Structure formats: structure tokens, C-alpha cells
Amino acid sequence: MTDSQARHWEVELTMLGPGVSEAVAWAGLVVERASNATLTDSAGRDYLDLMGGAGVNLVGHSNPGYVNALHRQLDAWMIGAHASVSRLEALRGLTALLPPELDRVQFYSGGAEAVEAAIRLAKSATGKFEILSFWRGFHGRTAGALAATGGARAGLGPAMTGVHSTPYANCYRCPLKTTYPGCGLACVDLAREALREQSSGSLAAILVEPVQGRSGNVVPPPGYLPALRELADEHDALLIADESMTGLGRTGAILASEPAKPDIAVLGKGMGNGYPVSAIAASSAVMTAGPFGAPSASSSSYGGFPLAGAAVAAVTRIVRDQRLADRADAAGSEFLALLRELIPERGIVGQIRGAGLAVGIELVTDTRGPLGKRELRAVFDRLLGVGVLVMTGGGTLRLYPPLTIDRDELTRAAQLIAAVLTTWTS
Questions:
Q1: Burial of 207 per CB tally in 10 Å (0-12, 13-18, 19+)
Q2: How many domains does the chain have?
Q3: Last residue of a domain, one of 267, 296, 321
Q4: Residue 156 pLDDT exceeds 80
Q5: Which pTM was predicted?
């Protein structure tokens, strides 16, 4: 951070609320411009942006097709949820990419709002009220979403009732102290037992991230999501896949949860590529259930406004035409393989994992516990110093390059990260 950037932040923080994410505050950048995977700060220095707004940068900074689509809509009209060409294109683009059973879409402004809508929809469709969520997941900070977000409720009083929470399938740090595949998915068995002991018999939905983002892009083992599908079916409940961070190709598939056939998918982040728009997708039978399906009962102040439609239409068009899910699958596999080749899983590095272009590097202490915040900040700063901007979560480096990133840039990113981590001394 230059002296000029420090002064800029100092002035902003006299007026700005404390909502800046930790990694953004650590970086202290004042960004002048951006292109694809590169940020340029006010001092003219370039950074490989693997933070990507925590996974928002799906099709690249200032993607020409995206920018032109928003310019055209700005010149036309902006205000109102009336029918529009841009919204129709967005709906057609999304439903063409999504599984055919998810044929109805409702637009919102942010991820938490969409999660709240998904919970209301599940309650409407089932006539029940309980939700099962998972430890260390993240779904938002509004009332219902917060109740389903473990570890984020301290000091805020009672959460929404009817929410149960059990361990996620984090095989690197299994809370049940067992090992996959010999465990037989014991975490799902525990969830089944917890519902048997704690539920009132009114489970409306299981709410799950197919890859847990905030925890460091934790990828569950094969069979986990289908096992949750079975558990939901046992209770005549719905399966809600929170794909805010993973959807539309990030993990190498349009939906990371597709093998589990979710009843409701929550979409956001990369779907707008920087424009604040989110959505839920479900079947017509589920989406029209009352009271959610009543007029105005599922609406949003800005849901489906024309600029949002233009953003979503452009993103879906780019994802489809450039086959970005396939690209993320191939490039992500190469990137993971190169990271594992260059960075031994020893010393400060506990595990390198990922799905597509959602990658996590778990950093550890000498005793293999999670790296503390102070040393994590030091690693972050050193990476920033060599021109690589990353996201963090717990003791993990979280990497979210755009799906349009050049292979040479991914190679350079892996080499720079390796140079820092393999020579690390605190």
C-alpha cells in the first residue's frame, strides 16, 4: 500500500461503515482499472486477481461483451420490473444452462436475499418449517440465512428457530475423527441421527453449499451430495443447493450440485459478474406453491430490473458461447496439478484442493492446526508483494480466477504462490 493509498483508505473509513471484508482491508488497494484477471492500482502496479470479489469475477473484469450489454441497457431504460428484452434473454440464458427441471427463475439483489427466498419457498412447497444446514457453511447475514450460517451468530441473540446444524464433509479436518471412504459417510449418518433426535418431524429443506467457500473451498467426497438428496427424500423435504459461489461453471460444471438433483438452486455472485443480482431456480410445481407463489409474495424491490437482466443475459451468453464450464474444468485440473507439483504438502501447506477454478490452499502450523490470523496476514502480504491477490478464509488461501483467465497467467500465479509458500519462514 502506498502512502497515497493509505491516505485514501483513511479518509474513506471516516465515513464508511465496517463492512469491508478482511482480505480487502488487508490489501488496502485503490484500484484504477481492471481487465480480465488483472487489477491495476492507483500507483500503476498490476496484480493477478485471484480474489475476484470472492468468486464474483466469472467472465473477467471489463469483459467487452458484458460491458457493451450494460451500456446498451443504460442508454435504453433502467427502472422498473416490467417485462423487458433483457430479462427475457436472461431467463432464456439461465434456463438453457440449468437442468431442465429447474425451469422457473425468480430474481433478487443479493445472495442472502435469495437464500431467504429459497427458505420461504421450501416452507411453502412442503408446508413444513425446519431447515438442516452445516457447520462452517455461509449463507448470508439476514435473519434466516444467518441462522443457517454456523459460527456467525455470536452476540446477536436468539437465531430463527427450527434450524438444525451438523458437520459438513470436511475430510481434511473431519470433526468425527474418521477417514473417507472407510467412514461410509458417517457425517450423513450423524445428520440423520440428529434429525431423528431433534426434529419435530417438520423438515422443509436441507440447505447446503456443494463446495464450502468460506471454509476454504472444501470439496466434499464423492457420494456426499447424493446422500443428502436421499436424506431429504426420507423426510419428504427439499434439497436447496446454495450455488452463489459455485454456480454457472466455477467448479467445472454449470451446477456443482447437479448429481444430487437439487429442488432449489440459489444463484448469485458470478451470475452478475459485478452487477448485484441473484436468483433462485426451481421447478414450476415448486415455484408456484403458496404462499410463496401468491402475487407479490416472492418479489424483490430490484428483482428483474433491466440492468440486472442485461448483466445475467451477457454472462450466460459468454458462459455458453465460450464453454466456460468445460474450460474451468480443464484449466482447474491443470492448475491444481501444477500447484501440487510445485508445492509439497508439508511445512506451512496442509492441503491443496479444489473443484474447477475454486481452489483452496490450507495453511497449517507446526502441529498441523489451522494457521493463525497473524501469520496468515503475513502470507497474504507477501503474496500481494509479488503481485498476487488472493481471498482468505479461516487459515486458507482461497483462489477464484475468472474462468476466462489465460493458461499462462495461471502458470505464473502457481509459480509465484509456490515461491512464497515453499520458502516460507515466519
A1: buried
A2: 2
A3: 321
A4: no
A5: 0.96
